[in-house]
Amino acid sequence: MTQPFLSIRNLRKAFGAITAVHDVTLDIPRGEFLTFLGPSGSGKSTTLYAIAGFQDPSSGDVLLEGKSLLAVPSHKRNIGMVFQRYTLFPHLTVAENVAFPLRVRRRPEAEVKKKVADMLALVRLESFATRLPGALSGGQQQRVALARALAYDPPILLMDEPLSALDKKLREEIQAEIRRIHRETGVTILYVTHDQEEALHLSDRIALFRDGRIEQTGSGEDLYLRPATDFVAGFIGNSNFLAAEHLDTSDGTATIRLADGSVISGVRANGTFGRGEKTRLMIRPEAFGMERSPASAELNVEIVDVAFYGERRRIVARTAAGEGVDIRPTSAAMQSQDASPCSRQVFFDPAAAFLFPA
Amino acid sequence: MSVETRRNFGTVRLPAGFNGLLPALVLIVLFFVIPVLALLLRSVTEPEPGLQNYAALLGDGTYARVFFNTFLVASVVTIVTVLVAFPVAWMLAIMPSALASIVFGVIILSMWTNLLTRTYAWMVLLQRTGVINRTLIAAGVIDQPLPLINNLTGVTIGMVYIMLPFMILPLVGTLRAIDPMTLRAAALCGASPFQAFRRILLPLSLPGIAAGGLMVFVMSLGYFVTPALLGGTSNMMLAEMIAQMIQSLLNWGLGSAAAFILLVVTMALYALQLRLVGARRMSGGI
Fold it and tell me: Domain A238-288+298-357 has what CATH class?
């Protein structure tokens, strides 16, 4: 029997006239690291809160191993959660914070002691056991929160933008911790973030939210390399959209005409288009090369500015039709003498370009 | 370094900005310190020098009863006030701010209403033939009027009503500083609503309860009007006794001694609270 571990069924949540979540359906296998990615107000946090039991959905269901969670109050759901803000109990020491979920479960003292020690070792804060949360840095507090959320071996760990209050360096450090802890404990993690890099870096799978619906679910690579919609393409990574007229489609690849009149064939069509229909062609900035290769298509651009970004250069260019193009070749692929403003051809693989409805 | 050390030996070090504080200090000395010293002096000189006033107050059963009664009333009032104020303060802390400011307005308005008016209003409500008793008899809940006035019940009701704002205001401040997410976190950790209250909300609100509770207790110790009007003769409080000693018996010495004992007890309580709160701060707590 293939019953999913955690299952979200047609979840809908309305606040008065505003519908925050329209219709979310998702199956999550045990042990997966799934990220809800999306802009603010896209319904990702509301979905997470419905799983936590902070908000009752207007309709739909949340099933854990086939049993509905909706009738179970938060404190009996046995779910771990790390919040955006540090929600440690300020009057309890680090060790007491981690022990709290075990104490309210009335576990024997010896077990509590051992578990607290294990958890503090897991987040590498053994030497901070007797400190109060106020004496810890933001990153340390979030690690304690993580230890507290995992202390009672919850089947699911919810994380609501846990790193958004931290600076970049700390964020990367704790991302690595979270990955390690996920590997070591095998806990199923549902992670909410609006930071696409964080989502790509951490997750097994990403559910991209938009306006209360899931736009696409898949691995980071799926979303990046095979975006289902122009919203996905625009949200994950950087992208250029060029106006294009659809000429013909066969076997999923299309032939189009760009605004400057050049005809390109072999681009991937996301959808079915009529002849002469207005469409948009999406090309990733790093898909452009400076050298011609047998399969490549070409684009005439005027280079406006070139900036050096270490491993890559960032070129601001314009097509003959006046559309801005962002090009990011590797630094090695382009000599610095090419950097002066000029008109030239850049090349791209049509198979890495996607056609979307206008 | 050595220069400064030498200077410290020579002169008393005054805090910076001391000169600016002088007018306030003069005021305090003139109107607070000197009268209190005069009071102390009276209590050990009238009718003749010696500690006989204190001996009489602390040795006599009647006076001891008044002291006991004063502490009993102040304790009961403080406890009941905390119990009533906590839910109100919590509601105010989590309610939308526009609505909260209206409720605050109502609470403050009651503070601005004349104390005597409010106390007489309670007399009208609590009398044997008062509104409450008549309503309850008419509704068939009771046969005989409840003794709600001229006893501890009346004093407690009247004083809790007057003390509530002094408890609610500091408590709201403390409760508002508690992140509601902390309670959600406690719930997800497996804490039942009662456990979350007992282990998280209550400890976190203790500073507010302590501050408000001390204020209410100290104010209750020296309260005069409400106990005089709503209380009975058998449970007289200290302030009433002092008034009687000075107004009716013209015994300034005994009255001063009683007032001074009240002052010392009050200050001792205040010092105790400072120590408790101070110790908590030192340990890095709330």
Answer: mainly beta
Classify residue B286: in a domain, yes or no: no
Q: Specify the length of chain A in residues.
A: 358
Q: For chain A, where are the alpha helices, taking DSSP H only?
A: 44-52, 94-104, 109-122, 138-150, 168-185, 196-202, 220-225, 230-235
ipTM of this complex > 0.90?
A: no
Residue in chain A lying closest to B202 (CA): A91
pLDDT value of residue A289 = 84
Check residues A244 and B11 and name the one with the higher pLDDT: A244
Q: How many domains does chain B have?
A: 1
Collect all residues of chain A within an 8 Å Cβ-Cβ radius of residue B196: 75
Domain of B100 in residue numbering reads as 76-236
Residue of B nearest to A85 (CA): B181
Residue B268 lies in a domain: no
Confirm whether B58 is domain-assigned: no
pLDDT for residue B286 = 39
In angstroms, the Cα distances linking B235 to A71, B156, B251, B256 are 54, 12, 21, 21
CA separation for the pair B220, A143 (Å, rounded)? 47
Q: Is B191 on the interface with A (CB under 8 A)?
A: yes
- Asked if the C-beta of B284 comes within 8 angstroms of chain A's C-beta atoms, the answer is yes
Q: What is the CATH number of domain A6-233?
A: 3.40.50.300
Domain limits, chain A:
6-233, 238-288+298-357
- Look at A104 and A276; give whichever has higher pLDDT: A104
Q: Which residues of A touch B177 (CB under 8 A)?
A: none
Decide which of B12 and B237 is more confident: B237
CB contact under 8 A, B195 and A77: no
Say yes or no for a CB contact (<8 Å) between B190 and A78.
yes
Provide the CB-side half-sphere exposure for A88 (13 A, CA): 31
Place of tokens 């002169």: B11
Q: Is B60 on the interface with A (CB under 8 A)?
A: no
Tell whether B180 is within 8 A of chain A (Cβ): no
Which of A49, A81, A87, A150 would best serve as a mutation to test chain B binding (most B beta carbons within 10 A)?
A: A87
Question: pTM of the prediction?
Answer: 0.79
| 3-state helix vs strand vs coil in chain A, percent to 5 | 30, 35, 35
Does the residue B126 lie in any domain? yes
